[in-house]
Amino acid sequence: MNDSEQSKNNLNKTVRIITQMGLNMASVLFSKLIKTDANIYIDKIYNEDISIVGNDIETNNKEVIAAMVDLVGDAPMKFLFMVPLDDALKITDLILGKKLGTTKNFDIYVESSVQEIGNIMASAISNVFVTTCKIKLLPSPPVVVKNYSSIIFQEYTFDLATESNEILIVESHFDLSATGINCILFLLPCLESKKVLSSIEGL
Amino acid sequence: MSKQILIADDAPIIRLMLKDLITPLGYQVIAEASNGEEAVEKYKEFKPDLVTLDIIMPQKNGIQALAEILAINPKAKVIMITAIDQKEYLTNAIKTGASDYIVKPFEEERVRSVIRKALGDL
Fold first, then answer.
1. Residue B83: closest CA among chain A residues belongs to which residue?
2. Cβ–Cβ < 8 Å for A30, A79
3. Calpha distance B97→B19 (Å, rounded)
4. In chain B, what are the domain boundaries?
5. Is A203 among the domain residues?
6. Residue A87 falls within a domain, yes or no?
7. Which domain holds residue A33?
8. What is residue A56's predicted lDDT score, i.e. its pLDDT?
9. How many domains is chain A partitioned into structurally?
10. How far apart are CA A149 and CA A82, in angstroms?
């Protein structure tokens, strides 16, 4: 294995371990917020060519609500949480302690439910990175958009394309008891953070 | 007259949840703000007995807003409500002059007790 492959493997291992720790914490906080057991797990970690990124997202043919959060600091990353529109209505009911099906239309509360989930989960992940890696990392205020997932993904990752031809993607899915809610979360380390994270040892 | 509270958070659903928790305690939510700048303006306008301030907000974050509110009134009672559970950051908020902090997602009972304590009702 050459130095480049070794570095890539070390980076993937570091990102996988710390992100899963962050997701474990995010699962606890998300469960508390929606008052329903939630388990968030890493589905896959992969490098993808920037020109085809977003083409095979599971929710491609659906309109989704997304919360986009830039994690700013020593290891900058992009955080993207997406939930199909109909499931966002259910999440709003869960947060407000209402019977599922009560919220029928997209409104400021649905929008801010997704916004707050983005805030809480991105914070949970950054908290774990800060504690584990002894780095500085803070979330920016979440930006919420409504569109098709592939379009959101491509637009959000556009500036990463100026840094590199391929991006590292951590794709995570949610198991939300029997609610039938389908969410997806992406964590995208920026080029600058790859150097920082790949140098972390002892995990 | 009931004590008055200003809620500042960029998420309307959090402002709604806090209002639903605070009102039954007998306090009046006199105003709401969706960013740090608006929080400072509403503080000047309403001079509430207590402010709940989110930290991660657009335009002006909660720590900056806290400093400006304390510059207006050094005795202002401000509770930080944040998802950032980082010791350095929370210590900084307390050093700046926050009365207390609550980590999101919040426990309802903790919100009630922290607010009542800050207002001297516990």
1. A120
2. no
3. 24
4. 4-118
5. no
6. yes
7. 3-198
8. 65
9. 1
10. 7
pTM over 0.80: yes
Give the ipTM of the model, two decimals please.
0.90
Hey, are the CB atoms on B56 and A140 less than 8 Å from each other? Answer: yes
Decide if A113 is inside a domain: yes
Reported as a single tens digit per residue, the pLDDT across A34-52 is 888 888 888 888 887 777 7
- Residue A72: φ, ψ to 5°: -110, 135
**Closest Cα in chain B to A131:** B86
Q: Which residues of chain B have pLDDT under 70?
A: none
pLDDT value for A60: 57
Tell me the CA end-to-end span of chain A in Å, nearest whole number: 20
What is the per-residue pLDDT for B12? Answer: 96
Question: A-chain residues within 8 Å CB-CB of B12?
Answer: 108-109, 111-112
Task: For chain A, list residues with pLDDT below 70.
Answer: 1, 53-61, 201-203
Q: How far is CA A18 from the centre of its chain?
A: 13
Task: Kindly report the number of other CB atoms within 10 A of residue B17's CB atom.
Answer: 23
Of A108, A120, A140, the CB nearest to B83: A120
Query: CB under 8 Å to B76, separation ≥6 — which residues?
Result: B43, B51, B69, B70, B97
Provide the CATH number for the domain around residue A125. Answer: 3.40.1550.10
What dotted CATH number matches B4-118? 3.40.50.2300
